[in-house]
Design a protein that fits this description.
- This protein is 33% helix and 22% strand.
- It is of the alpha+beta class.
- Helix 2 runs antiparallel to helix 3 and helix 3 packs parallel to helix 5.
Length: 241
């Protein structure tokens, strides 16, 4: 059955000599695997160049109930980027987020609130010309809401520890070693309370930003079984001095 949907490209791998397998987070079916035939013809209905990390595309595919791999029939850009592929900082962020989502989102079911959040976030980053150095941190903290991992802030007090294992803030030092100290916990709380428009008010050095990224990444790895060490993590830590 042919079906049209909008999707966000997460990951592409080579499959034989004439095709790729593309992992896409779609509006209608969640994360879905597609078979993409490669063609050099200018008249081809599917051009592989549009399947870049975090590209938002509109595609028509042949969905078959008994298959986990659906063949793309037509595809085109749904939201042409203004700056994201051409800015080295934004490109690094895009590669990291695409890899992160590829590892974190596993549901093969419709989740329109999550899809809308991802589209809004990608478009926001693409349209900004400044004040986006904290984007990936705020993005990951807000993403945790959709994945059921958002820490509870209701009982937070200054100088609390953050118990990463139980996702709670506590005035008592946990007995295990999966926690962060109060000074770093307070930075995490600030990030959780920010949005894209206000995040520039939170000034951090590259080292502080890298540390926050490590904490957030460790938190996800703790709560998502099988979540790997991301290849793009170290690259992102070197940016935004």
């Amino acid at each position: 059955m042919l079906q049209k949907t909008i999707g966000i490209v997460l990951h592409t791998i080579k499959y034989k000599d004439t095709s790729n397998i593309v992992e896409i987070y779609t509006e209608l079916s969640g994360r879905t695997s597609f078979l993409l035939n490669l063609s050099r013809s200018k008249k081809s209905a599917v051009k592989s160049m549009i399947f870049q990390p975090l590209s938002i595309i509109e595609l028509e595919a042949d969905y078959r109930p008994t298959s986990t791999l659906h063949r793309v029939k037509e595809a085109k850009s749904y939201y042409p980027f203004f700056s994201l592929p051409y800015d080295p900082y934004k490109s690094a962020i895009a590669l990291f987020i695409a890899e992160f989502l590829y590892c974190a989102i596993r549901e093969e079911a419709e989740n329109k609130p999550l899809f809308a959040y991802l589209v809004h976030s990608i478009q926001w980053l693409d349209e900004q010309d400044k004040n986006f150095s904290n984007f990936h941190l705020v993005f990951l903290m807000r993403l945790s809401r959709f994945l059921g991992l958002y820490p509870n802030l209701d009982n937070y007090h200054d100088k609390d520890y953050f118990d990463m294992l139980n996702a709670v803030f506590t005035s008592v030092k946990p007995f295990h070693n999966l926690f962060i100290q109060p000074d770093e916990a307070s930075k995490l709380v600030q990030l959780m309370r920010m949005n894209y428009e206000t995040m520039y008010l939170f000034t951090m050095s590259r080292a502080e930003r890298g540390r926050c990224l490590t904490i957030i990444n460790d938190y996800y790895r703790l709560h998502l079984p099988g979540f790997p060490i991301l290849k793009s993590l170290d690259v992102l830590k070197e940016l935004f001095d």
